[in-house]
Every structure is written in C-alpha cells, then in structure tokens.
Amino acid sequence: MKVLELNNIEKSFGDLTVLKDISLSVEKGQVISIIGPSGSGKTTLMRSAAFLETIDKGEIIYNGNKAAWMEKGKAVYQKNLKPFKSCFGFVFQQFNLFPHYSVIKNLTDAQMVVQKRSKEEAFSIAKELIEQLGLSGKENYRPSQLSGGQQQRVAIARALAVKPDILFFDEPTSALDPELTGEVLKVIRSLAEEHMTMVIVTHEMAFARDVSDHIIFMDEGFIVEEGSPDEVINNPKEERTKAFLGRFKR
Amino acid sequence: MTVQTMLLALSEGFVTTLAIFAVTIIGSMPLGIFVYFGKVSRIAPIRWIVEIYISIIRGTPLMLQLMVVYFGPNLIFGVSLPSNWRFIAVAIAFIINYAAYFAEIYRSGFEAIPKGQYEAAEVLGYTKVQRFMKIIIPQMIRNTLPSITNELITLVKDTSLASIIGTMEMFTRAKQIAVAPHTPGMWAFVAAAVFYYVFNYIVAIIMAKLEKKFQY
Fold this sequence. Notes:
The structure holds two protein chains of two kinds.
Chain A: E1 2-13, E2 16-27, E3 31-35, H1 42-49, E4 57-62, E5 65-71, E6 74-77, H2 82-85, E7 88-91, H3 103-113, H4 119-132, H5 148-161, E8 166-170, H6 178-193, E9 198-201, H7 205-211, E10 214-219, E11 222-227, H8 229-234, H9 239-249
Parallel strand pairs in A: 3-9, 3-10, 7-8, 8-9
Antiparallel strand pairs in A: 1-2, 1-4, 4-5, 5-6, 10-11
Chain B: H1 3-39, H2 44-59, H3 62-77, H4 85-111, H5 115-123, H6 128-158, H7 170-179, H8 187-214
C-alpha cells in the first residue's frame, strides 16, 4: 500500500525552479533516503510533501487521498489539510521544540489539542516514547536543559506521538556535534527495524546505505538516479552521482 | 500643615496616580496587540495609517498629546464636555500613547521568534489561533518582558504629566503643598519622590518575578 505519492511535482522560487517534474512514491514500511548536494531541492521536496512549501504543479496523495492535484495547469490544495497533517510527522534539522514547554508537554500538547486525545491517553503514549527513546527522567526538563542529541530525540518522539503513517527527517543530524549524531542515528535505525515508514534527507552516506530500502540522488531539482543502496551508493551509473559520492570517499 | 496632613494629601493624589497607571496598562497593553496587527497587516492602507499613528505618537511629547485630547474636542468642535472629562482625557491620551510603544515592543518580541516555531506548530496540525495562543504568545511575552518592565517604570513617572491639565494626582498635590504658605515646603517633593520610588521598586520586583516565571 502506498502511504505517500508525489506525482510530477514542480516548484519555483521566483525565477529559480527548484523541483522539476519529481515523482516519488513511498510504500508502507519503506525507508527512503534522499541524498544530493546542497541546493539540489531535496529539502524543498520534503517540505512540499509536508505542506510547508506550496507546489506549483503536481499531485500530493496520502493513503490514496488527494491533498493536492492539478486543475487548469496549476496545483490546487484541499481546503482542509488537517486530516493530511496527521498522516505524517516531521523532524527538523533545528529540532524546533517548543522552548516554553517541558519535554512531556512537548509530547502531549498536540495530541490533546489537535488529535483531541484524553490526557491519560496522551501521557501514556508520551511516556512509552520517552522510555523507548532513552529519555527517562527528562520528562520535566525544558529543551534548553538538554543536549542537542537529546533535543532531537525529543523532537522525534514528538513527531511519533501523533502516530503518523510516515515520518519525514530533514537532515536530522546536521545541527549536531559529531559525537551526538550517533545517538540520533541509532534511534532512526531502530525505527527502521520496526518498519516505520520514513523519508530521510541526509548527508550521512554510510547511514543511508545501511538503513534505506531505496535511495534517491537529486541534483539541480531533478532525480538523477534512484534504486537500492547497493545500486546508487556502491555502483552509481550516472556521472553526477559518482562525482557527488566521490567527495565522501575522500 | 503638619507632616501627617501632607502625607494624607499626597496619598489621596497617589490614588489618582495609581488609577492612571492601572487604566493605562489595562487599555494600552491589549490595544498594542491590535496596533501591532495593523502594522503587519496585509492591507496596505491599514499599515500606512498605523505607521503614521506610531510616528506621530512617538515624535511628539505626551504632554502635548494630553493638551490636545483635553482641550481639542471643545476648541475644535465646540463640544461641551462632562465634568469627569479631565480623567477621561488623561486615560485616552495615555492609552493611545502607550499602545504605540507597546505595539513596537510586541513587534520586536514576535520577530525574535524563529520561523521554525511556526513550522513545527504547522506540521503538528495546530490551527492558526491555537498556534498563536499556545506557541507564539508565551514566547513573545518572554521576549518582551524586560522592555515591558522599562515601559512600566517610565509610565509610573509619566503619570505626573497629567498635572499639566490639572489632574489631582500626586505630583499636582506635591506642587500645591510646596508653594503654599505654612507647609513643609520642599519636603512635599521629597515625600512624592519617595512614593514614586517605592512604587517603581515594587513594579520592578513584580516584573523580575514574572521574568523568572517565564524563563526557560
């Protein structure tokens, strides 16, 4: 079953076209990594799927339901996107935790306010996630009292708390010190083992190769090459992919 | 006049001072939010009007604004004014004046909130109103508390400007006592100074507590 389908997405910022006819579909349980140089459009693609950017052309479909489609040569959106927003969780590079909320409130507030879950249910889901992500004892800490790695784990827990069908990661370790990236990657790896559906924009090539079922290499707004990790990372066909990956091997 | 009667007279004036202070806060702090919305409105004419308003208010003395509000309706339109007009005029002038400053303070507080906070609330599915009330406003308040403290301390002292249109607040009382014969004279000003100082000291303590509460 397809959790997400992006069909023929186009997106420009002014004169600059950043996404050119991009199509991508994500099956339930699949882990897809998007790699590519800065400015290749990979973050914009994921932000478009999460409705943080408005696409100019194309379709966005969650679980078979159209959130955006083409009408008279332009993409139009469903008026009420709220049901679609609970289909996904989004993990930001800069965590974006709510600084005035404790860890537990960061994990429960949206559940109660948006999903309308009872306090008991929201707290029990949050506590389970706190344990699962190794954050026990930090329930009442404010984000500023935590390390970057802990903050990102809280952000992952917050995204998971709404019980999304798919999780998006936008360079989840890029804002972290090298010694802290490991703990975040470990969490994502364990989610992959539990068959959480995920799309990950990352610069961690070794991680992408190990954890993904499918890898997409983007450059200048195009999907240049895609396939299994073995195909794309170990045996790239396209020159641009080779050149990009070559920089990591050095 | 004994010291005791002087202090009693000053206390009576202080009640009016306190009333000006309270009315200004209650009126201008919420009004400032609407002024801020006007300033960042998508509708250009609203933005222009608000910008002109803020510019005039900040560019002219509050004392002059008091005079315009107090005398204006009668001098310009020949309106006859109610007996309590003096206090109403003070309230209007102070609220309009302080709302402009608060609007600017709020703007700096909103602008300091990272874009990621809006985006995080957005992807979690908060409505615009929920996002504003639960995520943005608390952070805005925290960002602006030090500036608001400054503004409130200025306000305590600015209440004495109401004296220019004869409002019987504490400063007017102190002036009357000081210049009248057979009174403690200069000591009336000293006593008034102590009143203002203690009042501001209390304001500062309360605000420091609030800042601590909003700290994260």
